[in-house]
Design goal:
single chain; alpha+beta; Jelly Rolls; 17 strands; 41% strand
Length: 293
C-alpha cells in the first residue's frame, strides 16, 4: 500500500516538473508588452530644452520621441504644444518644467475612422506627470476603461478622467481650472478623499502651515481669466489634430528624432503628421490677364 502511494506521489511530482516550464512559457507569452509610448511636438515657439535620459535636445517642431522619463523645460517667451500617443494634447507655457515620470500604453491598433483628434484613445494607458513650475493646458480624448491620468505639482495631485484642464503652479500655490470633463483634486498624497470639480470651477491649493497639509479652496473660474485659460487649452486641442499614431513592426532603435524605438514590444509607435483634407488653392492671376487690361 505504501509502495503504491509512493509511486503515485512520484508520478504527480514528475507531471508538475514536466508541465511547469510549459505553463510558465504560456504565461510569459500571454503577457504582451505594449510599445514604447511617444510624445509628438506639434508646435514650438522660442527656446525649449528636452531631456530624455542623459541626452539633452533642442525642441524641433514635427518630431517625436519616447515619452517615459522625458523632461520638458521652456524658457521665457516660449511655449510648445505636444500630443501623447494616446491622443491627449498638452500645451506647455513659458517658464514651465514638466517631468513625464510614467506614460505606458497597452498594444493598440490605430482608429482609422477617427484619424487625427480621434474621440477615444486607442488603448488603456497610465500616465504620471509632474509640473514643478509654470502652466500647462490639457485636452484629452475619451479615456477607455482602466486608463489613469495623474498630474502632480508641489501642492496638489490632479486625477484627470477626461476633458479640458488648465494647471498653473509655483512654489506657493497651484491653480486648477476645469473647462470641461471630470477631475479630482487632492492636496498632496495625504489627502485621500480629494475634491471633485465640475465644469467652470477652479481649485486653488495653497501650502499648509507648518506640519499641515495643503489647503484647497473651490470656486468659479474668474471671468477675467477665462479667456487666457481657454486659449491655453484650445492650443492643446488643436495640436491633437496635427498627428496620428500607427504601430509598425520595427526592431531597430533609430533614436530620439525618428519616432521609433526597438525592443520586444512586437511593434513601434510612429507619428504621422496629418495633411489638411482641403489644401489651399491660391491661384495668382497676373494683372495683365484681367479683363480691361
Amino acid at each position: 500500500m505504501k509502495t503504491n502511494l509512493a509511486r503515485l506521489i512520484l508520478a504527480c511530482v514528475a507531471v508538475l516538473v514536466v508541465g511547469s516550464p510549459s505553463a510558465l512559457a504560456q504565461r510569459q507569452l500571454g503577457k504582451k508588452k505594449g510599445p514604447t509610448s511617444k510624445l509628438y511636438l506639434a508646435e514650438s515657439t522660442g527656446d525649449t530644452q528636452i531631456q530624455n535620459g542623459d541626452k539633452i535636445y533642442a525642441a524641433r517642431q514635427a518630431t517625436a520621441f519616447d515619452a517615459p522619463g522625458t523632461i520638458i523645460e521652456t524658457k521665457a517667451d516660449s511655449h510648445d504644444a505636444f500630443v501623447y500617443s494616446n491622443g491627449t494634447g498638452m500645451y506647455v507655457d513659458q517658464n514651465t518644467r514638466v517631468e513625464i515620470n510614467q506614460f505606458v500604453q497597452e498594444p493598440f491598433r490605430p482608429v482609422r475612422e477617427g484619424g487625427a483628434d480621434a474621440p477615444v484613445e486607442p488603448s488603456i494607458s497610465q500616465s504620471n506627470v509632474f509640473v514643478s513650475r509654470g502652466a500647462v493646458g490639457i485636452c484629452t480624448s475619451k479615456l477607455v476603461s482602466g486608463s489613469s491620468m495623474s498630474y502632480g505639482t508641489p501642492q496638489a495631485l490632479v486625477n484627470i478622467r477626461g476633458g479640458k484642464v488648465s494647471i498653473e503652479t509655483n512654489a506657493n500655490e497651484t491653480v486648477v481650472d476645469l473647462l470641461e470633463g471630470d477631475i479630482t483634486v487632492r492636496g498632496g498624497s495625504t489627502d485621500l478623499g480629494g475634491q471633485v470639480l465640475t465644469a467652470g470651477e477652479r481649485a486653488v491649493i495653497t501650502n499648509g502651515s507648518a506640519g499641515q497639509p495643503p489647503h484647497i479652496t473651490i470656486g468659479p473660474i474668474p471671468p477675467d481669466r477665462l479667456q487666457a485659460i481657454d486659449d491655453r487649452v484650445t492650443i492643446a486641442c488643436n495640436a491633437k489634430k496635427t498627428v496620428t499614431f500607427e504601430v509598425i513592426e520595427q526592431s531597430a532603435n533609430r533614436g530620439l528624432d525618428s519616432a521609433t524605438t526597438g525592443g520586444d514590444t512586437g511593434g513601434d509607435i510612429v507619428a504621422k503628421p496629418t495633411v489638411p483634407a482641403d489644401l489651399p488653392n491660391n491661384i495668382v492671376i497676373s494683372p495683365d490677364r484681367l479683363p480691361g487690361n
